[in-house]
Design a protein that fits this description.
The chain is built from 2 helices and 8 strands, in the order E-E-E-H-E-E-E-H-E-E. It has 149 residues and is an alpha/beta fold. The chain has one domain: D-tyrosyl-trna(Tyr) Deacylase, Chain: A, CATH 3.50.80.10. The strands form 2 sheets. Strands 1, 2, 3, 6, 7 and 8 form a 6-stranded mixed sheet that branches. The protein has a two-stranded antiparallel ribbon with strand order 4-5. The termini are close together. The relative contact order is 0.30.
Length: 149
């Protein structure tokens, strides 16, 4: 499972001119689900997402977590995070889990995230989405549950 964390002042998802998920201060998490991902991968990415100390404290030092600032989380499924661009000019998505299975894991991720008490919004699984954000910092981090980077 791969994630791109973006610390945001606000973010939202629009599909066919209709607004779906919208958050204020918090994290936009782009989530790619890989063949073989399971609850361990969900737990790893979720814990990292909500416990990373990436928000400024009173001295301006990145020292606070999403939970501590009472921030919000917008989770957007993005299979292209699994794209392998090492060969040729067209990315290979062979590592991405099939849409039917990926949707189950995505929904389980969102369900577990909501159980943490954090406000969680989502995009629309497998839809063509417009994602709007004001990146705060900018702060953008990469996560991989297999710890390949």
């Amino acid at each position: 499972m791969r994630g791109v964390i973006q610390r945001v002042k606000e973010a939202k998802v629009v599909v066919e001119e209709k607004e779906y998920g919208k958050i204020g201060r918090g994290i936009l998490l782009l989530l790619g689900i890989e063949n073989g991902d399971d609850e361990k991968d969900i737990e790893y990415i979720l814990k990292k997402t909500i416990d990373l100390r990436i928000f400024p404290d009173e001295k301006g030092k990145m020292n606070l977590t999403l939970r501590e600032i009472k921030g919000e989380l917008l989770v957007v499924s993005q299979f292209t995070l699994l794209g392998d661009c090492r060969k040729g000019r067209r990315p290979s998505y062979s590592k991405a889990l099939s849409p039917k299975m990926a949707e189950k894991i995505y929904n389980l991720f969102v369900e577990k995230a909501r159980k943490t008490g954090i406000i969680v919004e989502t995009g629309v699984f497998q839809a063509m989405m417009e994602v709007f954000l004001i990146n705060d910092g900018p702060v953008t981090l990469l996560l991989d549950s297999k710890k390949t980077f």
